[in-house]
């Protein structure tokens, strides 16, 4: 007799016993791994002895549902915390919820359960007629309420015809059977209130209420009061609630649209201000830097003066950019005229500034200041001019204020490109148009380039004495 050690038999028995019950595990990488060896096989490889496909599908759906529930719970905790914080601060979040649909009015069909019960128990004569009428009413009701929440389908002819069919079926069933069949008049009122809106609602509501009163009076005597009251109330309350809900949603949509437009306008304002500010400032800095470089060899004091001007222009630009970011920057025409004279002189262009008339309103001053800045910047950068004239005609006898900037340069070959490609004169044209003014820019008949801006005179303009005529130049 030969004795076999137990240690050599145990692995064989273990493998033999566990082989029929081999378990397959699905990993996140899409491979199936055997539990006993840990070897991986492709996900497309057939698996013997595995669970059926429908059980695996159910388990996958179960796991997906559990993960979705866990995500919802975590999100709900965050939402609940925000709601409590807003409630403590007195600012509740604006969460209107989903819009009403046809499912909102479907539960009211339970009002006809009494008639259905009588029909089912055989207490109604001619049950087939009652069953067909009940089927026709319910079908039309479902059709109408699901088309009542969209303007196009609500006003369609088929919806109105279905409502008329409901009225005829309701009158026929109520006159034929009476009793619980009179409860279909309030249901007809619900459908009518959901479909009919506007000035015709009162006429339809009163007509339907009168019809319900006549039919119920013929069949139910004094019980007609409840039917009449229920019909009128269901018609008017349904129409009022749905109209109010629609109005609230339209107002909310309009508010969101206004907020979006406000953001776009603020972004456009900032981009225009940044373009105008940096375009003018960088042009002045470049011109003064070139002047300082030319003067450094022969006149160091003059070169240092130009460097000092560059520092002042840079500091002023920082201040203006901060004001533009906060939205509180209001330009001054007098300040822009002084800066224009300085920039033109530094560029070797003779400035001539003429201004007549009383001081202007702050809004007009700001707009015309932007025009002066942009026109002078284009003249310095693109015109190659030797002389630039700026005229402001704000005499009290004129109905409109006129600003003219004319140079004797190359006729605006580069200026037009600059003004139309970015947000320069094009943006100023839009600003002036919103203020009731206009802006024209183009080559002048005698050569050079002319920018003309006109604004209506503000009624709040001061009647101070006319400003003296200023002639530029340093």
UniProtKB/TrEMBL annotation:
Pfam families: HATPase_c (PF02518), HisKA_3 (PF07730). Residues 28-49, 404-474 are annotated as: Disordered. It comes from the Bacteria. Residues 28-41, 415-427, 462-474 have a biased composition (Low complexity). Residues 241-268 form a coiled coil. One of its GO terms (molecular function) is phosphorelay sensor kinase activity. One of its GO terms (cellular component) is membrane. The chain crosses the membrane at residues 128-149, 161-180, 200-218, 225-245. Residues 363-459 form the Histidine kinase/HSP90-like ATPase domain. Keywords: Coiled coil, Kinase, Membrane, Transferase, Transmembrane, Transmembrane helix, Two-component regulatory system. SUPFAM superfamilies: ATPase domain of HSP90 chaperone/DNA topoisomerase II/histidine kinase (SSF55874). This is Two-component sensor kinase. It comes from Streptomyces griseoaurantiacus M045.
